Amino acid sequence: MTNVNLSDGEWKIMNVLWERESATITELTAILQGETGWDKHIIITMLNRMLKKGAVSFRVTGRAKQFYPVVSRNEVSIRETKGFLDKVYRGSIGMMVNAMVADKALTKEDIAELYEILEQAEKAEKEGKKGSSS
Asked: By CB distance 3.0 to 4.6 Å, which of 29, 48, 89, 113 could disulfide with 95?
């Protein structure tokens, strides 16, 4: 599991890189300019920080650097989610869901999705127990 922590701005860049698989500074600037107002100098600064963190790397293609993600969206998302749960809800998923229920933040679709996720988790746990007891 990776130990990369991303700022909100770095998440924006990583989301573009994960979707496109790679991008140049010019491409990133064009894609993010409207949403963020960032110019190429801000993008360069952020990419340099992300290089130091080990989140991205690059290869030189012609005159441009083609940046690409070194870490997967899934591994960074899991780490960030665990960090959020620990910080805000003392690691308790139940406390988080309870807060969302109390705030009426869950739609019928969200509740149905949660049921499906829990059923899959229960099935996976049962299968895991079968495999460990044989």
From this structure: 89
